[in-house]
Design goal:
It is a multi-pass membrane protein. With 230 residues, the protein is mostly helical. 75% of the residues lie in helices and 0% in strands. Helix 1 packs antiparallel against helix 2 and helix 1 (2-30) packs parallel to helix 4 (59-87).
């Protein structure tokens, strides 16, 4: 029983590792908007599986749902930041990206509060708590089709300059946006001369060794600071 509980908790992280590892390939091939839409479907399916686990009397459904949630979260973390930053005007880009951290923290807080026994953490309501992760995904699935694809993706990956201009006008309104298009073109030219490293190549690269040490230490010590207990 202890082993099953441990697997149930940790399988979310395993799914997250797989999801984040495949995010770059998927975004380059299909675009950020399509990936986010499919990711929302994955989360809704995962929430439905976990929500029905009690009726089906199947702990395996919780394992499968947690794993799928992990994949969805792993995909969403980089995708959300990239898409939000790329569709925001330059003067609001920093603010827009900072809202991601705020809502990540707010979501964790709401989850911790909702999980109290007096609320949704009771013996009869916990399936609703596990299925609640599908609600934000459903909201985004319904609203995201009204937004265009990322302008940098359209221009840099697809070479669709007219589509890029149309997306910019839809996002930022009518006006002269040639400066933003020129910035994207400069970034595209820079990317041609930049080698994209794999995870293994990054770990072997001497120039990034100290940055990797710092990230690993910071990430590890966050787990030891007692934030979950708080």
């Amino acid at each position: 029983l202890l082993f099953l509980w441990s697997i149930t908790v940790s399988i979310f992280g395993i799914g997250g590792l797989l999801g984040s590892s495949g995010s770059r390939y998927l975004t380059v091939k299909y675009g950020k908007k399509k990936c986010l839409l499919c990711n929302n479907l994955l989360m809704i399916v995962a929430a439905s599986i976990m929500g029905c686990s009690k009726i089906a009397q199947s702990f395996e459904m919780i394992l499968i749902g947690r794993f799928m949630c992990g994949i969805s979260a792993g995909l969403c973390a980089p995708l959300h930041h990239q898409y939000l930053g790329e569709i925001s005007p330059r003067k609001l880009r920093g603010f827009a990206n900072s809202t991601s951290s705020f809502f990540w923290s707010l979501g964790k807080a709401v989850g911790q509060i909702s999980g109290q026994r007096e609320l949704l953490g009771s013996q009869s309501l916990w399936p609703m708590l596990m299925a609640s992760c599908g609600l934000p995904a459903l909201v985004q699935l319904v609203s995201l089709p009204f937004f265009p694809e990322s302008p940098p993706y359209l221009l840099m990956s697809k070479g669709d300059q007219e589509g890029c201009k149309k997306a910019i006008r839809q996002l930022w309104g009518e006006g002269h946006h040639q400066a933003e298009i020129d910035d994207i073109m400069k970034e595209k030219a820079t990317m041609k001369n930049t080698k994209i490293l794999s995870v293994l190549e990054l770990m072997k690269e001497q120039a990034f060794r100290w940055q990797l040490y710092m990230i690993v230490i910071l990430t590890a010590t966050v787990q030891l600071c007692g934030i979950n207990a708080v």
